[in-house]
Amino acid sequence: MFMIPLLKKLGQFFLDTIQAIVMALSIFIIVYLFLFQPHQVKGSSMYVSFEDGEFLLTDKISYRFHSPARGDVIVFKAPKTEPCSEIECEYIKRIIGMPGDRVMVFKGKVYVNGQPLWETYLSSEMVTSAGLAMPEGQEITVPENYYLPMGDNRTHSRDGREFGPIPRQSIVGRAFFRYWPIDRIGIVNHPNF
C-alpha cells in the first residue's frame, strides 16, 4: 500500500521532468532556427576585431525588418566556389559595399562612391590589396540585393575581393554579441561611416 503512492509520485516526477525537457528543447530549437545562433570565429581574417576561436551570437531576425548596413559584421554562406572542408561553410566578414555602391581598391585603400572609406576598426598599418574580383584601381558596382564583404585582416582574408559581392539571401545574420572568451565578452561594435 505504501508503494503505490510512492510510485505515483515517482511517475509524476518523471512525467514533469520529461515535460520540462521537451519544453526547453522546443524553446531552444525555435531560438536557434529563427532568432539567434552561435558561431565560432575560425582563422584570422577578422583579427583585430575578432580572434580565432572566439564565439559570437548571430542575430538571425533583424534583417527581416531592415536591410544590412555598411560596417555590420555578418555571417554568410560562403560562395560555392570557395574551398570549404565542411558541407556548408559560413564566413564572418564586415559589409563594405552596399547595393548600388561603386567600390574600388586603390593604393592600399578602399574607396566607396569615389571617397576613401574611413575604417577605424582596422590597424593603422593595414594595407588593402586588390583581388580577382576587384583588380587594382578598377571600380565595381555592387548589384541590387547584393553586398560586398571584406575581412578586417585584409592580408589574411578571402573575401569579396576574391569572389565578388554576395546575394542577400546568403546572409545568415548579424554578429552582435561576443560571449567567449569571458575577458572579451560584449556587444559587437558598429562603426559610424
From TrEMBL:
<feature type="domain" description="Peptidase S26">
    <location>
        <begin position="16"/>
        <end position="180"/>
    </location>
</feature>
<feature type="transmembrane region" description="Helical">
    <location>
        <begin position="12"/>
        <end position="36"/>
    </location>
</feature>
<dbReference type="InterPro" id="IPR036286">
    <property type="entry name" value="LexA/Signal_pep-like_sf"/>
</dbReference>
<keyword id="KW-0812">Transmembrane</keyword>
<dbReference type="InterPro" id="IPR019533">
    <property type="entry name" value="Peptidase_S26"/>
</dbReference>
<dbReference type="GO" id="GO:0004252">
    <property type="term" value="F:serine-type endopeptidase activity"/>
</dbReference>
<keyword id="KW-0472">Membrane</keyword>
<dbReference type="GO" id="GO:0006465">
    <property type="term" value="P:signal peptide processing"/>
</dbReference>
<dbReference type="InterPro" id="IPR000223">
    <property type="entry name" value="Pept_S26A_signal_pept_1"/>
</dbReference>
<comment type="similarity">
    <text>Belongs to the peptidase S26 family.</text>
</comment>
<keyword id="KW-1133">Transmembrane helix</keyword>
<keyword id="KW-0378">Hydrolase</keyword>
<dbReference type="GO" id="GO:0016020">
    <property type="term" value="C:membrane"/>
</dbReference>
<protein>
    <recommendedName>
        <fullName>Signal peptidase I</fullName>
        <ecNumber>3.4.21.89</ecNumber>
    </recommendedName>
</protein>
<keyword id="KW-0645">Protease</keyword>
<feature type="active site">
    <location>
        <position position="45"/>
    </location>
</feature>
<dbReference type="Pfam" id="PF10502">
    <property type="entry name" value="Peptidase_S26"/>
</dbReference>
<dbReference type="GO" id="GO:0009003">
    <property type="term" value="F:signal peptidase activity"/>
</dbReference>
<feature type="active site">
    <location>
        <position position="93"/>
    </location>
</feature>
<dbReference type="InterPro" id="IPR019757">
    <property type="entry name" value="Pept_S26A_signal_pept_1_Lys-AS"/>
</dbReference>
